[in-house]
Design goal:
TIM Barrel, eight-stranded parallel barrel, about 45% helix
Length: about 260
């Protein structure tokens, strides 16, 4: 199982720095953030100008590009994302569902948009993955299953993030079994409590929070999941390179130990 980390953790630093530090931590790959307004290590409007430098960065670091996070369902941005992913051989593009929880119209609109964008992703040879997200239209296992049942496109998959499922008052190690047949990507982090936010970046480090991530890893291995597992830690501004690198290194050590003990590394 490949371990990666989303470059959004290093949002105050450039992609070269992020890749260098993640390689030093031991990660196999990187998820490139293309999240407008938060972190654009890949600027979709000018991705062709960045293509050569991105190739050089990942080559020199020894990492592979496991995925890209766009977050938005905007068709124009996703079209650029699919073009860039196809050119850079990035297999997965991750988005959020948008909308508001428990608003049926928002859920149906999100499913319709995801279905159309998944068809487009498939045209480019890319998989579009969505994750259940606190406060949004798809936010728990039942709403995830609604999307799975409604979207038949081979270009569609689930990005299963245990921290959001945990904060939806479910146990991710149990819930993942219901959706694993369509899971194509894992975002992973820890959290304290079941509140709206995941907490400080230190409390998002794997092993520091309340989620039973060992049992979650066991469920992935038992279900023969073999896609990317990418740390996604998002925090406020002002963190030093040491602070974010420690979170990355600590999380890698925890996840690598879990997966090695299960024979998946």
């Amino acid at each position: 199982m490949k371990l990666g980390a989303n470059s959004v953790l290093f949002k105050e630093f450039d992609l070269q720095t992020a890749a260098t530090q993640l390689a030093r931590c031991g990660y196999d790959g990187i998820e490139i953030a293309a999240i407008k307004g938060m972190c654009e290590h890949l600027e979709l409007d000018s991705w062709r100008e960045q293509e050569d430098s991105i190739r050089a960065i990942v080559r020199d670091s020894g990492l592979s590009i496991l995925s890209m996070e766009v977050a938005s369902l905007d068709e124009a941005r996703l079209t650029l994302a699919f073009e860039a992913a196809s050119a850079l051989e990035i297999p997965v593009v991750n988005v959020g569902p948008g909308g508001k929880s428990d608003v049926e119209g928002d859920l149906l609109a999100s499913i319709d948009k995801l279905s159309a964008m998944a068809d487009k992703a498939s045209h480019y040879g890319v998989t579009l993955c969505v994750k259940a997200h606190v406060g949004q239209s798809i936010y728990n296992t039942p709403t995830t299953l609604r999307a799975m049942e409604s979207i038949a496109s081979p270009g569609f998959g689930i990005d299963m993030d245990p921290s959001h499922i945990y904060r939806a008052n479910e146990n991710p190690e149990e819930s993942v079994q219901d959706v694993l047949s369509r899971v194509r990507h894992i975002h992973i982090r820890d959290c304290k409590g079941r509140g709206q936010g995941p907490g400080s970046i230190e409390l998002q480090a794997c092993g520091r929070g309340d989620i039973n991530l060992m049992a979650y890893c066991e469920a992935l291995v038992r279900g023969e999941y073999d896609g990317p597992v990418c740390l996604e830690v998002i925090g406020a501004k002002g963190h030093s390179l040491d602070q974010v690198s420690i979170v990355a290194a600590e999380s890698y050590g925890y996840l690598n130990a879990c997966l090695k003990s299960l024979g998946a590394r």
